[in-house]
Amino acid sequence: MTAHTHSHTHLPAASDPAPVTAARIGIGGPVGSGKTALIERLIPVLQARGIDFAVVTNDLVTKEDAERLRRSGLIDPARVEAVEAGACPHTVIREDPTLNIAAGDDLEARFPGLQLIVFESGGDNLASTFSLDLVDWWIFVIDVAGGDDIPRKRGPGVLRCDLLVVNKTDLAPHVGVDLDGMLAEARRARGEKPVIATNARTGAGVEAVADAIARAVLFAP
Amino acid sequence: MRVIQRVLGSRLDAAFAERLHHLEHHGAVDVLRVPSADTARRRLRAVTEGGEEIALALPRDQTLFDGAVLVLEDHRAIVARVGAVRWLRLRAKNLPDALELGYHAGNLHWRVRFADGALLVALEAPAEDYLVRLGDLAGDGRLAHDVVDDAPGEA
Q1: Which residues span the membrane (chain A) (predicted)?
Q2: How many domains does chain B have?
């Protein structure tokens, strides 16, 4: 784009070179729904697309998820930061996200050119939501084994997220869940907002999640 | 697609007002409608009223606001207009119910205001979704409720 000034006054143009900041997205959801597993599957997909990214994990009182990612061999360990929530996980992604914002700022300072920072919430309940002061766009992950009644419960996490991921689709026949019915109910509850079914063990659906991220905050076609 | 990397200023700023007024006379000011709930997003894709798809990638220290000037060129401008905040106004009929309402609003982390003895909840979803969370308190007619736009009151 070309920078513009006009003949009357010297006004700045929105397309002037500006400090480039990384897009920030959140991944939240109940304990054990597969948030970390989804990130582990997303990492190689994002890398294959040439996206420069880093991850901030949130745990209650440990750095378990961060260590899991650092040891995975999938990503430079320096690109994974840990925030200890200390109390309710939603506190540090919604009421006071200062610790996470600081972790994101630190990553941006250490990795100039960073395009994307993924904030993984600690496992929480269906009321968990992200502050838009922290992230630009967020995913909520539920799983089939958690029960096909989750969409019906209309938790704020399920309703307000930008993308709902229904994970562990392979478990549906083993836990007596009608997957198609669960997805239909989720879509009904969310109106026009998207729902994607995934199996983070096999990677099914993960490309579609990466597509959604790239389109929403990296402005891919 | 045009990527806007910062807000230039307010349409009310003296530096912009005259220029925008001139462009408006030529039908050259396009409007980006933004729901109030989306103003905190620094990254956003949207389509203007004129049909142009644009992307916002604002610095972390900037947010959208009503009247934000996003584009100002010789023959064209884009200005953001933010939709009114809708509020669910709840009025308890007695003190015990008011206490219970206050408990629920806090427990559910709702964003609220107070005005004229009523509690107002900022709506980010249909009002019914909020009322159902109040259970008997709303279902038994112990609260008067309606929906209003941009209510006055103290945060």
Answers
A1: none
A2: 2
pLDDT, tens only, A159-205: 999 999 999 999 999 999 999 999 999 999 999 999 999 999 999 99
| Residue in A closest to B6 by C-alpha | A14
A12 falls within a domain: no
CB of A4 less than 8 A from some CB of B: yes
Buried b or exposed e, range B137-150, using 16+ CB within 10 angstroms: bbeeebbebeebee
State yes or no: pLDDT of B152 exceeds 50. no
Residue B32 lies in a domain: yes
- The verdict on residue B45 lying in a domain is yes
Co-location of B49 and B101 in the same domain: no
Residues B30 and B44: their CA atoms lie apart, in Å, by: 17
> Does the ipTM exceed 0.95?
no
Q: What pTM value is reported for the model? A: 0.84
Domain boundary among B82, B97, B119: B82
Between A126 and B11, whose confidence is greater?
B11
Select from B154, B147, B81, B87 the least CA-distant residue to B120: B87
Of B82, B117, B134, which residue sits at a domain end?
B82
What contacts B76, CB < 8 A, 6 or more positions away?
B23, B28, B29, B30
B25 Cα to chain A: minimum distance (Å): 17
Distance from CA of B11 to the nearest CA of A (A): 13
The residue type found at A150 is I
Q: Cα–Cα distance between A69 and A42 in angstroms, integer?
A: 12
Cβ atoms of A55 and A27 closer than 8 Å:
no
Do B4 and A14 lie within an 8 Å CB cutoff? yes
Same domain, B10 and B39: yes
Contact present, A96 and A127 (Cβ < 8 Å): no
